[in-house]
Design goal:
The complex is a heterodimer of chains A (about 350) and B (about 400).
Chain A lengths: L2 E8 L16 E4 L4 H9 L3 E9 L1 H6 L1 H12 L6 E4 L6 H17 L3 E6 L4 H6 L4 E4 L7 H16 L6 H4 L7 E5 L4 H14 L28 E6 L3 E3 L15 E4 L11 E3 L7 H5 L7 H9 L5 E8 L7 H17 L4 E5 L2
Parallel strand pairs in A: 1-3, 1-4, 4-5, 5-6, 8-12, 8-13
Antiparallel strand pairs in A: 2-3, 9-11, 10-12
Helix pairs in contact in A: 1-6, 3-4
Chain B lengths: L1 E7 L2 E4 L4 E3 L2 E4 L1 H8 L4 E9 L5 E4 L1 E5 L2 E2 L20 E7 L1 E6 L9 E3 L3 H5 L6 E9 L5 H24 L5 E5 L10 E8 L6 E5 L2 E2 L6 E3 L1 H5 L3 E5 L9 H5 L2 H9 L5 E9 L4 H17 L4 E5 L5 H15 L3 E8 L20 E6 L3 E4 L4 E3 L15 E4 L15 E5 L1
Parallel strand pairs in B: 1-9, 2-4, 6-24, 10-12, 14-19, 14-20, 20-21, 21-22
Antiparallel strand pairs in B: 1-13, 3-4, 5-12, 6-11, 7-10, 8-9, 15-16, 15-18, 17-19, 23-25
The chains are: A alpha/beta (about 350), B alpha/beta (about 400).
Chain lengths: ~350, ~400
Amino acid sequence: MVLRVVHYLNQFFAGLGGEEKANLPPEVRPGPVGPGRLLQQMLGDRGEIVATLICGDTYFAEHPDEASRRLADLLRPLQPNILLAGPAFSSGRYGLACGEMARMAFQDLKIAAVASMHAENPGVQAALAGAYIVPYGGSAASLKEALPSLLTLGLKLAEGKAVSPEANGYLPRGLRKNIPADRPAAARALEMLLAKLSGRPFTSEIPIPRFDRVPPAPPVPDSSQATVALVTESGLVPAGNPDRIESSRASRFARYSIGELRTFAAGEFESVHGGYATDYANADPNRLVPLDGAHRLEAAGRIGRTHDVFYTTVGNGTSVSKAQAFGQAIADDLRKAGVHAAIFTST
Amino acid sequence: MLTVHKHIVRDIEFGPKASFRGGLLTVVPEEIQALAAHPLVRSLDVRIARPGEKIRIIRILDAVEPRAKGGDGVVFPGVLGPAQVVGTGETHVLSGCAILSVSFLPRAQEALIDMAGPGAGVSPLAKKTLLILEFTPVEGAHWGEYEAAIRLAMLKVAVHLGEIARSVPPDETQEVLSRSSVSHLPRIGYIINLQAQGSFKDTFVYGKSARDFLPTQITPGEILDGAVVSGNYGHPSLKNSTYAHLTNPVMWELIRRDGDDLTFGGIILKPEPTTLQGKALVAEYAANLANLLGWEGVVVTKEGGGNADIDLFLTAEHCERRGVRTVLLMAELAGADGRTPPLLDSPPGADALVSLGNYEEPMELPPVEQVIGGDSLRMVEGPLAGPLTIPTAAFFGALSPVGLGSLMARAG
């Protein structure tokens, strides 16, 4: 099969002009252009550069979403097997565009896609998590040396072959992928431990992440005036779980209006959490989310008002990124609703 | 010292008379049903699944490797036999096979095994011939008592199979020392964290829930004789089944290498309490024990997800503070696309982690010819025999905290 290849260039490498043409909006031209001709020679009869996409660097930098969307619209009907972007060398704006092109084609359009640029090009950090980027440290004068790695990885991806940063020379994307281990975990553990004991170098197989720590909000000055919301990861939902929150690895949270309710009645609310025995919680759901207690405090004037919507999800094997997204969305909602404080119950 | 006689089972079949010949184990379903009879069990279906067969097994509760001692010898003390200290004498083990208990239980997180295809590649038990015990409760059965009945039945069948093979000369014999040897090699111990947090999330040591234990020392022989039994139905891939305890790869690797490039310094069992204060206490207590035992290094494994990671990190922190160097085995919570930070915390002292794979990576499974264990799973819409997309986490033992699985994750 002859692979259909699309190449992405900026206005300069496409031969349309320098800075004075950097505002050019996205366009498509048939066949190879500029460095694409050399790429076509290297491809030989394995593939054909069917088109070249071009965009001015300034245009891309100033309208990144718009540029990406318009280039995706131009790319899709070309039905390519591979998108190759650059090389962008050390050019920052061009690097950002090449990185985004490789990311968009690979992630959004599911096309094999690779970009080439200097490892310290800002385009690397911007796109790395979602794109294959091969580093090239040389200058634009040595174009011929930069192209083979770009092309080879593109062909491998298009053929659906397994690739790795070590074997194929691309920058590790920081994505965690499951692979069959070549040796049992127990043997690897003991070797790592023996190395650690003897002072020999060793590498943790899991990188230690750095988390953002959220400082607690300042105390509520007068709780008797405060609107207090109830938020939980205990999996408490209306009976029947209308939003189908998963019992583990939850992909969503839900909000339920509890306007007139003064207490959660057994049978009307239940827990769908898969991480603990729910009998006692279901017998009295207020044990999970103290709606009855909140209203007692409200009646006693200890808090101003119980917020009439409660938020719920299941915290059971939930990924940090999901939990973070839930937290941000819930916090935004609460702030918009004028809530002053929230009680989070956890199980 | 425990002498372990290993009998390698190459296949299992049903027949009129139980026997073990040339690796072929013949069992009588009616005998097994009689052993498992219990007022709360309405029926028991006995089935066989072999590696490579297009079978999907669902709702797996636990698994066990068959074994027996014969005579007055006790295995699974405190659960099946009297609660007396085990780990000496001779034990006959049937390797190459496993018994699975399968049933619906409320709140049990539903585990599956595919015997063929990509799912089989990540299911450690797909490489074994499986004797499947599928239980159905009587109507209105008390779930806690029904669950205990299943556990008892499975262990009785495990001993029954062990007894069938016991009269046949073993394929291999190995001696496992109870007392660690003395040498100049680095002294390395093993801390096994056990999830014991109440009903359906419990682990039994000599028949007692490990829930309120302080960390304690145990010999490999005791574990091999079934002193640790699982009653844990959370997290199919992140729990330690009874099979995982009996075949614990970290323990076996330490036994194998003892006197070679290390000295096996022993094993500490440690619970995973439900409060932070409790977690901190057992972590420090275990670290203190490790230090008293003269361990220079320790491998620590866990059970469960989320809160169990905190137990792992606290143990590492307290061990390292006492100069006992640590390596931790961990599955990663990196999200379906592998983009999330793989750990929940950035723990002080924990700088050597072995990856057991990403929990959430989805797997594409081709259709199968037969499904055993029921006709629906909460996480699956549509027919179970059809092609499915399932997170790695749903496979029984795929990310086994003690390293039974075959996966690791890395940056790609």
